[in-house]
Design goal:
about 290 residues; two-stranded antiparallel ribbon; elongated; binds adenosine-5'-diphosphate
Length: about 290
């Protein structure tokens, strides 16, 4: 900053003063031209300097973002990798293991490698989305087809977690222009989050309706909700609200970033609010076809 003021602002100020003096004490037309030229030159230099400072700041922000991204990716990969190493070493130990212990180790290896697999898949998807190279196959789809596809994938999780799911999907909704796979995965993501962060009530509501030419699909849980100040940040990649409840849950903070990309690629929007009687509600709005 002091560099900018010493080498740009001070000489500029001096020139502006000279320009004004020349204009005030003008003796001939040549002085007017000279004064105007000096002032125009000052304005051009000032605009250039401001633009340069903003460009440098943007470049610095971007490289900071890339550094954060790298350190978060490495951190997220380290956890399952450490577990995989641990269980592999246990299996390799000369000390004999019981069948049950061996089975447990293999199950953990399977689980942790699947976790890595999902994380890498999500990262690749997000990379493609952010680079704008993700291909969406959008075509007119009935809303219930998108919802049913999400619900089929959700069913095993629902059964395993003993969750009650109430659905309200009117059959007369207008179709939407959607990539069925991608949009149903976005919905599935919201359902999974409702299970992960929905607390002990174990109840989720999924509702669809049409509003102002847009189809709205909402997922509500009965958990603690999301503090108002976090409503924007939770959609940033890798962002997780840092409290004990979230830390108990596995996650990479990529889910909602991906959901937002998918919804925006459908010309829609995603919103979140806290329900008056407790819990978070996310809703996706996409234009009717
Ligand atoms: P992940 O679940 O992998 O951490 P997400 O991007 O899906 O990542 O979510 C980001 C964060 O938003 C979560 O870590 C959690 O803190 C918060 N969050 C998401 N859904 C809910 C919800 N239904 N209730 C409360 N908090 C939520």
């Amino acid at each position: 900053m002091w560099l900018a003021s010493t080498f740009v602002l001070l000489p500029l100020l001096a020139l502006v003063v000279v320009g004004i003096l020349v204009l005030v004490f003008q003796r001939a037309t040549v002085d007017i031209t000279f004064g105007v030229l000096i002032l125009a030159f000052c304005v051009a230099v000032l605009v250039g300097a401001i633009w340069l400072v903003f460009s440098l700041k943007r470049a610095a922000d971007l490289s900071q973002l890339q550094l954060d991204f790298l350190s978060k990716v490495s951190h997220e990969f380290k956890t399952p990798l450490t577990s995989i190493r641990l269980f592999t070493q246990t299996l390799l130990e000369p000390r004999p293991l019981t069948d049950e212990q061996r089975q447990q180790c293999l199950q953990m290896l399977d689980q942790e490698s699947e976790r890595l697999n999902v994380m890498i898949g999500r990262l690749l998807d997000l990379g493609r989305m952010e680079a704008g190279s993700m291909v969406y196959h959008r075509q007119p789809e009935p809303v219930d087809a998108v919802v049913d596809s999400a619900l089929r994938a959700f069913e095993p999780i629902r059964l395993q977690e003993h969750v009650t799911l109430a659905t309200d999907v009117p059959r007369d909704l207008p179709p939407i222009l959607a990539d069925r796979t991608m949009l149903s995965q976005a919905l599935l993501n919201l359902l999974q989050n409702a299970v992960k962060y929905g607390g002990d009530a174990r109840r989720i509501d999924l509702r669809c309706r049409v509003d102002d030419g847009e189809v709205e699909m909402s997922v509500a849980d009965r958990g603690p909700g999301i503090p108002r100040r976090e409503h924007r940040r939770i959609f940033e990649r890798f962002y997780r609200i840092d409290d004990r409840l979230d830390r108990k849950q596995e996650g990479s903070g990529l889910g909602l970033a991906i959901v937002r990309h998918v919804v925006q690629a459908h010309g829609g929007s995603i919103l979140v609010r806290n329900r008056p009687d407790g819990g978070a509600e996310f809703w996706i709005r996409v234009p009717a076809a």
